[in-house]
Amino acid sequence: MTTSPPFNIGNTAFMLLCASLVMLMTPGLAFFYGGLVQRKNVLTIMMQSFMSLGWTTVLWFAFGYSESFGPTWHGIIGNPTTYAFLHGVTLKTMFTGNDAGIPLIVHIAYQMMFAIITPALITGAFANRVTFKAYFWFLTGWLVFVYFPFVHMLWSPDGILAKWGALDFAGGIVVHASAGFAALASVLYVGRRHVVESRPHNVPLIALGTGLLWFGWYGFNAGSELRVDAVTASAFLNTDIAASFAAVTWLFIEWVHGRQPKFVGLLTGAVAGLATITPAAGYVSPTTALVIGIAAGAVCYYAVALKNRLGWDDALDVWGVHGVGGFLGIVLLGVFASTLWNPNGADGLLRGNPSFLGKQFVAAAVCSAWAFGFTYGMLWLINLITPVKVDEAAEQTGLDVALHGEEAYPLGI
């Protein structure tokens, strides 16, 4: 019989703060993406992030949390009715996943913020060319058939991948690899834009978005310990170290190739480092975080270069930054994980456990393949119901006016 841990004021307050930080990441993403697109499409891309903020909450409240953390069905998905509409959840219901002493409603709120930002990440891949109705159906189907099952398989104690021994501290598979490879499928299905404009319309807006994402990421990674302890602190520090080293690495590589240091490159490199350290943040040392950051800056830079060479119209480099970064982080966790830095984690290849590296690679590969395949098939089905891609006239006019009848800069300022 499982007994509930006593209520802990400090851990509860900390987790509410972390939930707030993760929530802030979605508006931060809206600013980041909004600055990267053209002025005639800025409201459309921002609206897609804020739509996830609203609609994902509805689904999470209705059945999403239950599918993610309810009693398991073969380790793949939770029972959708156990916590449906928070049935049976009261002020006294405690989270029993550890002994942190936080109410269940705090865990529900914290995990909800992860669910909100994950599908919003994908929108950068098909920016400037997808109808809002198709996006709505995409958002719904992707959460139900990709995100909720992945959460259950990796973060629920009864999940099939969790029981197998795969680890994902804060979302290398669940968030970044799944979103990144779904983004690639979206790019390949939807096709290239009729009007390809790659110059950002507002670099300060990108910088604001990066700052908010970076700030919120401390709640994303440190909060995934679900309590305050030494692992929480190391995850916090590892997050900053990886982001910083990745940002500088990307900047220097781009400087060498282009003869000029680029601000957008520095910012993009930081996000790549944040995505890559996410699965490993609470399982590795700060020195390892440095190595992961350098690897993230270099590998994600060249992944974006490969994407450009292949002609994939991933408008905002979601695959190269989040897909490749998340996958890389999971694999590097298999190499560098150490129980010296988290006794509840695992030892990786460098500590004499090659089987853990194999599990990490297989888990990342299987989940990324499912995210890619399901996304491609779902978009095909959605297109039978409603057109996925806007016409060329809407692209020329801009989706803000064509789809929503609004303008970010109506006076042309």
Provide key terms for this protein:
67% helix, Ammonium transporter fold, mainly alpha, 413 residues
Question: Explain this structure to me?
Answer:
The chain has 14 helices and two strands. The chain has 413 residues and is mostly helical. The protein has a single domain (9-398), classed as Ammonium transporter fold (Orthogonal Bundle), CATH 1.10.3430.10. It has a two-stranded antiparallel sheet. β1 and β2 (77-78) form a beta hairpin. The longest helix has 32 residues, at 354-385. The radius of gyration is 20 Å and the shape is globular. The N and C termini lie far apart (65 Å). The mean pLDDT is 96.
Reading off the top of the CATH hierarchy, the class is best stated as Mainly Alpha
> In terms of quaternary structure, what is this?
single chain
Helix content estimate: 55-70%
Number of helices: 14
- Percentage of residues in strands: under 5%
Poorly predicted residue ranges: none
Task: Summarize this entry quickly.
The chain is mainly α and 413 residues long. It is built from 14 helices and two strands, in the order ααββαααααααααααα.
